[in-house]
């Protein structure tokens, strides 16, 4: 199993923008992003923190957008 990277919210948002997400709004320190895949709309809220907690990254964000840890690592290398 690939290791989950320790990244900031800004790095994650840059990766999400690369794969088609668009920033819709921000309320306080939470940034809302959205992407349309066919008829399916994926929405995710990223807390704007310097370091995202592993549980938030894996179970909250990656799970919501159907992105694996391996795919995230590949996108970070680009």
UniProtKB/TrEMBL annotation:
Keyword Nuclease: yes
Pfam family, any one: HicA_toxin
Alphabetized UniProt keyword annotations: Endonuclease, Hydrolase, Nuclease, RNA-binding, Stress response, Toxin-antitoxin system
Signal peptide: none
GO molecular function: endonuclease activity; hydrolase activity; mRNA binding
Keyword Repressor: no
Top-rank taxon: Bacteria
SUPFAM superfamilies: YcfA/nrd intein domain (SSF54786)
Stretches of the chain forming a coiled coil according to its record: none
Family stated for the protein in its record: Belongs to the HicA mRNA interferase family.
Protein's recorded name: YcfA family protein
Species, as recorded: Candidatus Collierbacteria bacterium GW2011_GWA2_44_99
Lineage, broadest ranks: Bacteria, Candidatus Collieribacteriota
